[in-house]
């Protein structure tokens, strides 16, 4: 009799603590192959701007977070299949994606830029790039913008940004369009990128690039979305964001306040 | 080169995962292969049809499509069933289970044909001799069918196994951290993709070379007493 009640109470406590734990736990999908936003060290630990922002937001919201690695192409399907509850992987807020998932407020916004060889011999304008081969990452916002803005150029698609840079060096494409920061950090500042530079200025377009990069959650998960947006504002205000930003970039990558979405840098 | 040494724990972990995945899916595919061959050689119409459908469908769809279907589609289905019946909130399909099971079922279809061909190659007269001596079915299987089936199946088996070992690379698209996934991530994180792809290339060659040696030894053992003309 006593043993049965003891066992019952232990079981009850176990399920209760399990339930409480589950309510607090948050699984966040991250990529791990997009330096400097997310990358893997030699010991397998994830680091990068996205990773640190994710951890900072969890600390702010006081929730137990687990980072779940997911390959980019399967990010949204995995979110919808409930493999995790939020995506912090430099995913741009776009209308097309909003049809499938919801986004929090942006947590950064950087413009796109065209990169080509320093002695390319053509301008980064619509006329200059006519007939040229421009490489972009498939599915990303850059594909939308390139196809829209440079209709006379040949747009070549790749599954990773890494491959775009590879082919630019090999000469299979004449120019590439990608995030300005990524181009700067992963390519132009490396040895291989020494002979390349930006062609033309910033490209900002709300239709293709949306309002910046945000955190994705499942459609209808408003509670989590609002909690994340509030946490983003909080870490902007209490200096945590600035601290993390300074580790990776020499300037504030947040961009303008969300209200003025179309400002140029 | 230094980078590879630096990231060696990642590559080793990925290699171990690849080997585990390959071996587990091999066991599954051998079971399905033997069952499928038995079905295709049986006198029961139903078994014949079922085995035929199995090999046709599984061999007719790209492996990648099947893996994605099982992993994402399966998860969505389980979620839907759980939501509809209210029995569970979220039961996760583990990446390893999804990957190993799918690859196992896929190659089960290929092994079905390998085993079927091997069994059909055994001279029927030997089995008839066994029956006429009054040997029970189990003894016929152990002494006549099995040893010869293995010998005839080895070329096809080697083929399937090597392809299966390399097919495990597909699980990298569902995010399972096998050799290819870890090599890709390390390569992209350091900007040295080519270096890490070369390392993966070498490791796969080593694995297949070891398999080749092992299977050749198996071939020699089961060919004892057979004259090679």
Mean pLDDT across every amino acid position of chain B? 90
Largest sheet of chain B: none
Helix/strand structural class of chain B: mainly alpha
The largest sheet of chain A, given as strand count, sense and whether it forms a barrel, is: 5 strands, mixed
- Name the CATH class of chain B: Mainly Alpha
Shape of chain A: elongated
Please tally the β strands of chain A and state the result.
12
The secondary-structure element order of chain A is HEEEHEHEHEEEHEHEHEHEHH
Task: Assign a percent range to the helix content of chain B.
Answer: over 70%
Distance between the termini of chain B: 48 Å
State Rg of chain A.
21 Å
Distance between the termini of chain A: 73 Å
Strand content of chain A: 15-25%
What's this entry about, in short?
The complex is a heterodimer of chains A (265) and B (229). Chain A is of the alpha/beta class and 265 residues long. Chain A has 2 domains: 2-109 and 211-248, Periplasmic binding protein-like II (D-Maltodextrin-Binding Protein, domain 2, 3-Layer(aba) Sandwich), CATH 3.40.190.10; 112-208, D-Maltodextrin-Binding Protein, domain 2, CATH 3.40.190.
Protein architecture, described:
In chain A, 39% of the residues lie in helices and 24% in strands. With 265 residues, chain A is α/β, with parallel strands linked by helices. In chain A, β2 and β3 form a beta hairpin. The termini of chain A are far apart. Chain B has one domain (2-222): MetI-like (MetI-like fold, Orthogonal Bundle). Helices cover 82% and strands 0% of the residues of chain B. Chain B has helices at residues 2-6, 8-41, 45-60, 63-85, 95-121, 124-132, 137-167, 179-190, 193-222. Chain B is flat. The mean pLDDT of chain B is 90. The chains are: A alpha/beta (265), B mainly alpha (229). At the A-B interface, β2 and α3 of A face α2, α4 and α8 of B.
